[in-house]
Amino acid sequence: MIRNLKEVKDNNFDITRAAEEVRNLSFNDHVCLGCGICESTCPVEAITLNAIAIDARHRISNDVYFSGHDKIAQNFKEDFDVQRISIDESKCVLCGMCSGLCPVDALVLTIDDVPIKEIEAYPHYNAFSEIDDDECVYCKRCEIACPRDAIVIERILPDRADLVTGEIEVDDEECIYCGVCEELCPAEAIVVDKETGKESIVIDKDKCVYCLVCKKSCPTNAIKAICRSCSYGEYDLDPAKAVVKGNSVIDSELCVYCGWCEGVCPTDAAKVKKPFEGSIEVDDDKCQACGACVDICQCNALAFPVSSGPGSRMEHVIAYDEYCVRCKACAKACPNGAITVTRTEVDHTPINSTTWKEALDAIKD
Amino acid sequence: MPKHIASGLKYLAAVKLKNMGKTHQEIAKELSVDRSTISHYLNGSNLSWNSIEVARTITEFCPRDFLKMAFAVFDKPEESRKIVNICRIRNYDAIIEDSCIGCGLCVNVCMMKAIKLESLHAHADSIQCCGCQLCSDECPTNSIKILEI
User: Of the candidates A82, A127, A131, A81, which has an alpha carbon nearest to the alpha carbon of residue A105?
Assistant: First the structure.
C-alpha cells in the first residue's frame, strides 16, 4: 500500500506520494483566496474550508467576532493561526483537481517536480497580467494599488545634470563663507566650511539646478551663475538622457488578476485577463455593514463609503465590479447572505477528460 | 526451495510457449534462460515433478495470490511479470470508465505495469492484466472494472 506523507510548516503543508512517479501537493496559505473551489471540487471530499476563511473575521470564544486591531488580535493568536483550508491526507489521492482549478497558485500539484500548470494534459485558466515596458512610465501607481503587493517597479531616474544646463562659479575674493547659500540651496549642492583658517566653498555641478537662489541671496554678490536651459536647452540637453527607465515585475504566485493595475495605469502598459466572467451584487437591505467581506476580499473589490462625519452610521458595503474576480469568497463569508456573485464563464484550455470537464463546468453558475 | 518453485514456474511457462508453437530458441530468449536448459525442461529432465506440482498449484491460486507469490519467488520484477502473464489461466478485460479522475493511484499499484495515464485518464492494457484487482480496490472513484473473459 502506498501511503501519503504530510509535512506541515506554519499554515502551509505538503502531501507526498512517492511511487515510480513522485506526486506532491503543496498548500500556500498566504496565496489562498478562501474561495472554496477546491472544497467543492475535491472528488474524494478530502478538503474543508476552515471557519477562519468562511467568516474571515477574527473569531474569539462564544462566536464573538471583531474585525480586529492587531494589538487585540495578538492576545488571541492561537485562535487565529488556522490555515484557510485543511486536507485529510488519508483521503487525498493527489489527483490534482484542486490544484488545476485553484484560481491562484495556493494549491500546487507537482509530478516528478513539474507543476501541473506546465503539463499540457491538465487544464489551465486563460488568465494573465503583464506590464508592457514600452508603454510603462514607471509611475508606480500599480505597485501602490496592487492589493496583494504582487508588483515591484524598479525605477531608474535620469541624472539631474542631464536635465539642466547653466554656469556657476564663486569669487573666492568676495566670499565671506557665511553659509547662507548652503542653507538655502534646495538641491543641497553647496558645501561651505566655515572653520576659521580652513574656509572653503564647493558647489557640486552634478547637483546644481541653476535656480539662482544662492546668487540672489549672497550678501556679497560672490556667486556668478546663469541658467541656460531656456536659451540653449536644445543645444545643450539630449532628450534621450532625460527619460525615466526601469523594470516591472509581477509576482505570478501572488497575482489574482483583479485588474487594479490596469485600472490605475495612466498609459496602456498594464493588461489583465481574468479567468472568470460574471457579476457581483450587494443587497443593500440585507447588508449589516459588518465588514466580513471586506476582510476576506483579496482584490480590494469591496469597500465602505468614506464616512460623512463623526457619529455617522456605517452604510452598506460597495462592490467594485471591475476589480472583482468572481471567486465568491465574500459571498461565503457574508453572515447575512447579502452578496451574490455569479460565475458565468470559465476560460480554460481544452481538455479531454470527462470528469475534469465536468468539474470545470460545475464551478459555473 | 524458492529456486525450485521458480524453475517449476519456468517449466510451465516453457511448456505453454511450446504449445503455442514457439521453438526452443524463442522460448529460451523469452524466458531469459539458456537453450540447453529449455531443452532439458521440455525433455522432462533436471526438474523434480514435486516442484512442478507446487508451481502448478501456485498458478491456480486466485490471481492476486499468484501475482504476489510470483513476485516473492523471482528476484527481478520483470521476470515475475513475464511468468504471471504466460502462466495465468484466465484472460481479463480491464475497463476504465469515464469517471476516472486521473489520480494515477492505479498506475502506482499495478504490479503488472498494465496501466498508463494519458490525458488525465488511465488506460489499461488488457493483455498485461493478471486480474488481481489491486487497481479497482484502490480506485477512489470506482472507475475500474476487471472482467474475466
Answer: A127
DSSP, res A313: P
Amino acid at B111: M
CA pair distance B11, A26, nearest whole angstrom? 50
Q: How large is the ipTM?
A: 0.82
- Please identify among residues 75-114 of chain B the ones whose CB lies closer than 8 Å to any CB of chain A: 98-105, 107-109
Residue pair B25/B35 in contact by the 8 Å Cβ criterion: yes
Three-class SS state of A175: coil
Cβ contact A280:A294 at 8 Å: no
- DSSP element (H, E) containing A145: helix A141-145
Residues of A with CB under 8 A from a CB of B: 2, 17, 19-21, 23, 43-44, 93-97, 111, 121-122, 351-356
Handedness of CA A180, A184, A189, A191 (dihedral sign): positive
User: Which residues neighbour A229 within 8 Å (Cβ) at sequence distance 6 or greater?
Assistant: A164, A165, A166, A210, A236, A237
> B59 φ, ψ to 5°?
-65, -20
A285 closest CA partner among A317, A242, A258, A240: A317
A321 burial class (0-12, 13-18, 19+ CB within 10 angstroms)? exposed
List pLDDT tens digits, range A319-342: 999 999 999 999 988 888 999 999
Cell of A134: 514600452
Give the list of residues 6+ apart from residue A353 with CB closer than 8 angstroms, or none. B100, B101, B102, B119, B120, B121
Question: How do residues B103-126 score in pLDDT, each as one tens digit?
Answer: 999 999 999 999 999 989 999 999
pTM: 0.80
Residues A182, B141: Cα–Cα separation, whole Å: 80
Averaged confidence pLDDT in chain B: 89
Cell 480586529 locates to: A68
DSSP label at A4?
A: P
The residue behind cell 465568491 is A328
Q: Three-state SS for A83?
A: coil
Q: How many whole angstroms separate alpha carbon B39 and alpha carbon B24?
A: 7
Cβ atoms of A253 and A207 within 8 Å: the answer is: no
Q: Cβ separation of B101 and A19 shorter than 8 Å?
A: no
Contact: A353, B100; criterion CB under 8 Å: yes
Q: Which residue of chain B is at minimal alpha-carbon distance from A352?
A: B119
CB atoms within 10 A of CB B9: 29
- The upper half-sphere exposure of residue B105, i.e. CA atoms within 13 Å in the direction of its Cβ, equals 26
Residues with Cβ within 8 Å of residue A64, at least 6 apart in sequence: none
Neighbouring C-alpha atoms within 13 Å toward the C-beta of B146 = 25
Q: Is A287 helix (H, G, I), strand (E, B) or coil?
A: coil
- Give the separation between CA A172 and CA B52, rounded to whole angstroms: 116
Residue recorded with cell 476560460: A347
Q: Judging by beta carbons within 10 Å of its beta carbon (0-12, 13-18, 19+), is residue A64 exposed, middle or buried?
A: exposed
DSSP state, residue B30:
H
